[in-house]
Amino acid sequence: MSKHHVSTTINGEPAEFLCETQQTMLDCLRDVLGLTGSKEGCASGDCGACTIIVDGKIVCSCLMLGVEAEGKSVTTIEGIAQGDRLHPVQQKFLEHAALQCGFCTPGFIVAAKALLDENKDPTETEIRYWLAGNLCRCTGYDKIIRAVQDAAAEMRRETVA
Amino acid sequence: MATLNYAAPSTVDEAVKLLAGSSGLAKVLSGGTDLLVQMRSGRLKPELIVDTKKIPGIIGIREEGGGLVVGAGTPGAVVEAHPGMNKSWPGVVEALDLIGSQQIQGRCTFAGNLCNASPAADSVPALYAAGAIAVVVGSKGRREVPVEQIPASPGRTSLAKDEFILEFKFPPRAPRSGDAYLRFIPRTEMDIAVVGCGINVTLDEKGTCTAARVGLGAVAPTVLLVKDAADALIGHTLDDETLKKLDAAARAACKPINDKRGTIEYRTKVAGVLARRVAAIVFDRAMGKTQGKTH
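Structure tokens for the assembled complex are given below, as produced in the milestone run.
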């Protein structure tokens, strides 16, 4: 069977790619489109390092076929900053040193951004449940939670101003 | 590696034809959160994947005949955001919500959870308790199947090769009805049930149970609909004697295995305890005392 031709939108731009059925969206992002910000940790939907946003919902790109991206709107870690301006979640991860090795960081940032798009003032419990599907073996999570709380506060200030 | 074909038909007929015509293993793709893992591990080697999500209506929730109809491809996150589902079936919603992470919720479906046929599937005891009906389509047409008749054994369903679930019908809600689901895991999130219990009841004005259904997960090769446990509730208020009978009936239904998550004795004991706890929540919910989530 010939490869599938997929037309989709990635980070606001139209994108087209060719893939085989068994290639996951993560494979397509990394190996076909050269978007290597999304990481493969477990390849079984447990670690969240490959988190992307598809039509407004976060998913593990390792559990989605590339061919399923047809007609969808996809946001990856590469689309979170606006040009040179970091997203508040990215800025606060830096300020709070919410990363060490950094492998899990793209997934955390995409997931946290999606949370703050839905909920401007999440409680610590809400943040911890939302991010339960993102594993970090370095930080112990506390700095990540503080960074997300601070980013939420920053985004609320920006909305008022 | 053999070629893996993919089709995303836009009609039921086309999907059924593809499934019927496949010479090797054909798998229906909804959210893929089980299927892709099983393909990756080599446990499943399908020749054809039929992605049903392009069939109109298979994603979404609508009202029909006083009840709710949930399309088989509707992801967890969409069900959980639906006001009608939360109002009428908080137990079904909280059970579905326990499947995996927020990322999994972006894709996982009732149909996938039911047809993966794991005895520990979280949404399934709540679906059994709700009395949900699966609308199954295939070459011979359309049939309506009580959800408890779908799983046959671990990993196997009663569906024919050319059949798949199109949608789930949730019956109209009588006054003073409530449902709830609890699962026991050794941590707070992201784990597989040691035991899961879903109960659905209807009460009269005095708080006496007039109808009940009890589903138990992870205590037998398939999720169980436990009639004796339901009978322990029907005709009674939730007093100590009723709770004792419910506990005993739940334990008596258990045929669990020993594994790393729990022993036979432990799972059996926990099934009784969970049934009591869920019963307390559903009687409260049925009387309008609380609509809160249990986790």
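Chain A touches chain B at residues 1, 4, 20-22, 24, 43-46, 48, 51, 54, 57-60, 62-65, 67-68, 70, 111, 115, 129-134 (CB under 8 Å). Residues 88-160 of chain A form a domain with the DNA polymerase; domain 1 fold (CATH 1.10.150.120). Further analysis is deferred to the final report.
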